[in-house]
Amino acid sequence: MSPSGRSQPLSLVLLLGMGMASERVSCPSRCSCRYLEVNCTGQQLQEFPAAIPLDTRQLILAANNVSYLPAVELSFLADLVYLDCRKNLLGDDLDFAFIGVAKLVYLDLSFNNLTQVTFSTFSHLLSLVVLKISDNPNLVAIEKDAFANNTWLRHLDVSRTGLTFLDTSTVRDLPNLRFLGLSDNLWHCNCSFLDFITWMTESNVHFPDADNITCYTPEGLRALKMPALEAQLHFNCLTQLYKQDYIFLGLIGFCIFFAGTVAAWLAGICAVIYEVHTSKEEEEEEEDTVA
């Protein structure tokens, strides 16, 4: 075999070896890497890992102590479609964090320290299909238009949070929504919540663990499940009056009574003045006749 014939396989081996070495070098410390996937589960990472391969499609950061997702570093992963950040320390500095990962389809932020979700939090994730933000016990507010741009969203889980209210339009306007987790939240079941419950009963969305979707307040409705709650709220809100309603009606009645009394008093004064004036004219006419 010619020298050139021997060098060709040798060159190929060297190139493959360099490629494998390059792949090993580019894998973040304490993480495992394979084709298009980086897995850093349970490595007690304090920060977002460096040197993630730019062609990564799946990034798993579960069970660490990461408290911040840097938008710049994330934007380098333009092909990322799967991001698992469950069981970390992520808080409310996520606005615009996902601006560079528009292809993201799956995002898990459960078991973190979120307290609110605004329009800016997920507005750039136009391809998002699955979003898990359950088990954030301090999550107390989701803005009305928080998911306005996430029209492909099919699976949304907000179970076991601190939510007491969720505006109906927040989920009703998601045309592809098929799964909505709502269980074990602190729902405040007042008349403002009636519209949401009515939507739940009429929609085609699946509510897992439906037996645990119950009221927390007011006291009289605590632990009441949604089907029974709808009928109860319809009765309370549409047929009964609350204390403030009685006060309002009392004020209206008093105003009507007062206005009627004043009108009658004025009419009486006018009648007396008219009688006095008429009597004087008659007396003057009689005096003129006698004269």
TrEMBL record:
Key word Coiled coil present: no
Keyword annotations: Cell membrane, Disulfide bond, Ion channel, Ion transport, Leucine-rich repeat, Membrane, Repeat, Signal, Transmembrane, Transmembrane helix, Transport
* Biological processes annotated in GO: potassium ion transmembrane transport
Q: Where is the LRRNT domain?
A: 26-58
**SMART domains hit by this protein:** LRRNT
From which domain of life does this come?
Answer: Eukaryota
Q: Does the keyword Ion transport apply?
A: yes
Name this protein carries in UniProt = Leucine-rich repeat-containing protein 52
- Leader sequence residues: 1-21
